[in-house]
C-alpha cells in the first residue's frame, strides 16, 4: 500500500475512533519490500443483530481516552474508566434512542503518577469539586449502515456544552461470561478544554482535546 493511501486510511480511522493495526503484507518484513496493509478492528455480528431494549453500561470494558498535543512535540493520552449509564434503543428507530453516561473524574490515569495527581487537582480537573463528567444524548442521527451522529450535552469541570459524537457500531454478541446480550460502540469527539474551564498550560499543551470512547453495554 502506498504511503499516501496509508495516511488516508489512518485519517478515516481516526475520524471514527477506530483502532487500527499495521501489519506486513506479502513481501513484508526484513528484506521483503516493506509493503504494508492496514486492518481496522471489527467485532462480532452486525447492527441487525442488536436487540431492542435497555442496556446498562459495562464499566469494566468501557474506556474514555483523551489525547492532547504535548508542546507540539508528541501526542499524549490518558484514560478515564469506571463509568455508569443507561442506553435504550431500537435499531429500527434510532431517533428515539436515550443515552446517559457518567464517568468518575477521579478515575483519570496516565503513565505518570505525578501527572495523574496533577490532573485530579484544582489546577486541572478539580476532581474534589467536580467528581463526575456526564454526557446526555439529545438526538441520534444515522450516518450510513453502522454509524451515527450522537448530539448531546457534555458536562465537565462544572460546565455544560453541546457536543456531537461520531459513533460506529463495533459488535453484538452474547457475553460468554455474563450470558447477557451485549453491544459495543466506538465514539470520537473533539473539544476545546478551555471552553470547560480547563486552561492549564494552553497552548503549550493543546486546547484541542480528542476523546475516544470504547463503550460496552449489557442488556437488562
UniProtKB/TrEMBL annotation:
Which keywords does this Swiss-Prot/TrEMBL entry list? Signal
What InterPro entries would the database entry show? Lipid/polyisoprenoid-bd_YceI, TTHA0802/YceI-like_sf
The answer to keyword Signal applying to this record is yes
As given in the record, the signal peptide range reads: 1-22
Q: Does the keyword Repeat apply?
A: no
Coiled-coil ranges from the UniProt annotation: none
Provide the Lipid/polyisoprenoid-binding YceI-like domain boundaries: 54-218
Q: What is this protein called?
A: Lipid/polyisoprenoid-binding YceI-like domain-containing protein
Species assigned in the record: Novosphingobium lindaniclasticum LE124
Amino acid at each position: 500500500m502506498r504511503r499516501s493511501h496509508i495516511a488516508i486510511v489512518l485519517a478515516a480511522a481516526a475520524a471514527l475512533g477506530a483502532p487500527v493495526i499495521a501489519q506486513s503484507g506479502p513481501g513484508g518484513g526484513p528484506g521483503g519490500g516493506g509493503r504494508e496493509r492496514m486492518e481496522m478492528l471489527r467485532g462480532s455480528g452486525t447492527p441487525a443483530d442488536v436487540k431492542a431494549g435497555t442496556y446498562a453500561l459495562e464499566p469494566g470494558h468501557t474506556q474514555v481516552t483523551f489525547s492532547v498535543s504535548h508542546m507540539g512535540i508528541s501526542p499524549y493520552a490518558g484514560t478515564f474508566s469506571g463509568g455508569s449509564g443507561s442506553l435504550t434503543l431500537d435499531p429500527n428507530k434510532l431517533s428515539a434512542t436515550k443515552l446517559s453516561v457518567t464517568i468518575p473524574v477521579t478515575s483519570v490515569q496516565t503513565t505518570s503518577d505525578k501527572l495523574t495527581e496533577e490532573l485530579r487537582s484544582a489546577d486541572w480537573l478539580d476532581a474534589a469539586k467536580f467528581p463526575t463528567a456526564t454526557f446526555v444524548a439529545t438526538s441520534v442521527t444515522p450516518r450510513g449502515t453502522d454509524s451515527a451522529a450522537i448530539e448531546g450535552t457534555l458536562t465537565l469541570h462544572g460546565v455544560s456544552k453541546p457536543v456531537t459524537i461520531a459513533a460506529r457500531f463495533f459488535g453484538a454478541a452474547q457475553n460468554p461470561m455474563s450470558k447477557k446480550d451485549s453491544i459495543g460502540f466506538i465514539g470520537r469527539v473533539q473539544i476545546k478544554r478551555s471552553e470547560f474551564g480547563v486552561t492549564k498550560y494552553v497552548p503549550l499543551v493543546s486546547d484541542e482535546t480528542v476523546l475516544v470512547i470504547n463503550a460496552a453495554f449489557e442488556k437488562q
